Amino acid sequence: MIQLTKLSGEPFVLNAELIKYVEALPDTFVTLTTGDHIVVKEPLEEVVHRTVEYHQHKQLIPASTRAV
């Protein structure tokens, strides 16, 4: 789970395993595997960073030894 912020300023927690893709249009749109779309305040890079951290924590992908 990753914490994000709706455009209204309301924080929420998203199951990162449901993320299909993320776009900057210029707002950040998160498209889920369910077909739902969520617009968040965080920039695309931050959503990707939090998602990668989540997957590394769950040991679904290996931790990188280089800085991103």
From TrEMBL:
Name assigned to this protein: Flagellar FlbD family protein
Keywords: Cell projection, Cilium, Flagellum
Domain of life: Bacteria
Record PANTHER family: SWARMING MOTILITY PROTEIN SWRD (PTHR39185:SF1)
InterPro entries: SwrD-like
One Pfam family hit: FlbD
